[in-house]
Automatic annotation (TrEMBL):
<keyword id="KW-0479">Metal-binding</keyword>
<dbReference type="GO" id="GO:0004450">
    <property type="term" value="F:isocitrate dehydrogenase (NADP+) activity"/>
</dbReference>
<feature type="binding site">
    <location>
        <position position="134"/>
    </location>
    <ligand>
        <name>D-threo-isocitrate</name>
    </ligand>
</feature>
<keyword id="KW-0460">Magnesium</keyword>
<feature type="binding site">
    <location>
        <position position="94"/>
    </location>
    <ligand>
        <name>D-threo-isocitrate</name>
    </ligand>
</feature>
<dbReference type="InterPro" id="IPR019818">
    <property type="entry name" value="IsoCit/isopropylmalate_DH_CS"/>
</dbReference>
<dbReference type="GO" id="GO:0051287">
    <property type="term" value="F:NAD binding"/>
</dbReference>
<dbReference type="InterPro" id="IPR024084">
    <property type="entry name" value="IsoPropMal-DH-like_dom"/>
</dbReference>
<feature type="binding site">
    <location>
        <position position="96"/>
    </location>
    <ligand>
        <name>D-threo-isocitrate</name>
    </ligand>
</feature>
<feature type="modified residue" description="N6-acetyllysine">
    <location>
        <position position="123"/>
    </location>
</feature>
<feature type="binding site">
    <location>
        <position position="100"/>
    </location>
    <ligand>
        <name>D-threo-isocitrate</name>
    </ligand>
</feature>
<feature type="site" description="Critical for catalysis">
    <location>
        <position position="211"/>
    </location>
</feature>
<feature type="modified residue" description="Phosphoserine">
    <location>
        <position position="94"/>
    </location>
</feature>
<feature type="binding site">
    <location>
        <position position="85"/>
    </location>
    <ligand>
        <name>NADP(+)</name>
    </ligand>
</feature>
<feature type="binding site">
    <location>
        <position position="288"/>
    </location>
    <ligand>
        <name>Mg(2+)</name>
    </ligand>
</feature>
<dbReference type="InterPro" id="IPR004439">
    <property type="entry name" value="Isocitrate_DH_NADP_dimer_prok"/>
</dbReference>
<feature type="binding site">
    <location>
        <position position="110"/>
    </location>
    <ligand>
        <name>D-threo-isocitrate</name>
    </ligand>
</feature>
Length: 395
């Protein structure tokens, strides 16, 4: 329910490494799709903002993430970015993590869809069609950890042993320590977004993926809180006595099944029975593994799109890294950031332009005119440059 002007300002971060190859292609494809869908009644006003290595060139040596960039991204609400180099040394662990934390981007959204003709290890890859809602602010990924042998780790261990009487496992003072916080609020806002997405998009099920059989008070609680939220806010009722639930989609009148699966079993399920799964809601670490595993089933990280969302801000992004070996050579696959832009257009409600991008991209793949990462796995394909792939999509 964004209110979108006819010429929205969209900040973009070109990104480092292959960002220079893929981001300009993305802009050309988006401009062409918007023109095709709306003539000149709508147009994106691109605004370059800086982060990563390019920011250090523009703003000076230590400025990896300028305040102006954070401001633009939160003020204009919707933005898009290429991959960023992680600074070595210094206080920043990762620019992506910093962005997420600063803007409270608690959802990492990764749609997994198969484009006909893409190389896949599966016999029937077209059965894979899922949307992953990965919690992005909590869990063992929160970055609360201490190296083995540090005074912090040692005093924590002493506290756990002496005061909390933790003795049941091997727990030497030389252990490194990481903390896994999972809260009811954090779980609820993620699961709420996933269920709402299923409602808005007429999806038949939402699956909570967790390791609650082992980690009862974090991952187990995630499952319990997820079901409770569905009951309280969406009127879900137990299905055949539970624990699975069913809720009615108020838009379509159809049922949405809310189920849960243990994470390790789920990784088998996505290979064996991908058609049984649809919208996925999961914790941070599980979501990381699952996103990449599923991306590999449908063509790999070169064409897997993603977005990081808060309640107000959305940053759409290439999910791959900077791939320095092929950077600047017009070889990288722009598919990931192009499909992220497609998600961005849907987020704006510009579905006709988003549809045009999907048609263009699947057409280019079916014609076998793709970048090298895909071409070398497709027997009849012809390898083309990043920019040529962009032109094929537009054509
Ligand atoms: P970083 O250190 O930023 O993560 P990386 O090289 O590890 O950089 P990844 O995204 O992790 O980048 O990718 C691993 C490898 O996959 C790359 O080295 C590259 O060979 C390939 N790759 C990733 N993205 C693309 C792409 N868009 N097009 C072609 N190949 C890609
Ligand atoms: Mg990498």
């Amino acid at each position: 329910s964004l209110s979108v002007p006819a010429q929205p300002v969209i900040p973009f971060i070109e990104g480092d490494g292959i960002g220079v190859d893929v981001t300009p292609v993305m802009r050309e494809v988006v401009d062409a799709a918007v023109l095709k869908a709306y003539g000149d009644t709508r147009k994106i006003a691109w605004m370059e903002v800086y982060a990563g290595e390019k920011a250090t060139q523009v703003y000076g040596e230590d400025v990896w993430l300028p305040d102006e960039t954070l401001q633009a991204v939160s003020e204009y609400l919707v933005s898009i970015k290429g991959p960023l180099t992680t600074p070595v040394g210094g206080g920043i662990r990762s620019l992506n993590v910093t962005l997420r934390q600063q803007l409270d981007l608690y959802v990492c959204l990764r749609p997994i869809r198969y484009y006909d003709g893409t190389p896949s290890p599966l016999k029937s890859p077209e059965k894979t069609d899922m949307v992953i809602f990965r919690e992005n602010s909590e869990d063992i990924y929160a970055g609360i950890e201490w190296a083995a042998g540090t005074p912090e780790a040692q005093s924590l261990i002493a506290f756990l042993r002496d005061t909390m009487k933790v003795s049941k496992i091997r727990f030497p003072e030389t252990s490194g320590i990481g903390i896994k916080p999972v809260s009811r609020e954090g779980t609820e806002r993620l699961v709420r977004k996933a269920i709402q997405y299923a409602i808005d998009n007429g999806r038949p099920s939402v699956t909570l993926v967790h390791k609650g059989n082992i980690m009862k008070f974090t991952e187990g609680a995630f499952k319990v809180w997820g079901y409770e939220l569905a009951r309280r806010e969406f009127g879900a009722e137990p299905l055949d006595g539970g624990p699975w639930m069913r809720l009615r989609n108020p838009r379509t009148g159809d049922d949405i099944v809310l189920k849960d699966v243990i994470a390790d079993a789920f990784l088998q399920e996505i290979l064996l029975n991908p058609e049984d799964y649809d919208v996925i809601a999961t914790l941070n670490l599980n979501g990381d593994y699952i996103s990449d595993a599923l991306a590999a089933q449908v063509g790999g990280i070169g064409i897997a799109p993603g977005a990081n969302l808060s309640d107000s801000v959305g940053i759409f992004e290439a999910t791959h890294g900077t791939a320095p070996k092929i950077a600047g050579q017009d070889k990288a696959n722009p598919g990931s950031i192009v499909l992220s832009a497609e998600m961005m257009l849907r987020h704006l409600g510009w579905n006709e332009a988003a549809d045009a991008i999907v048609r263009g991209l699947s057409g280019a793949i079916r014609a076998g005119r793709v970048t090298d990462d895909l071409a070398r796995l497709m027997p009849d394909a012809q390898s083309v440059s990043s920019s040529e792939f962009g032109r094929c999509i537009v054509a």
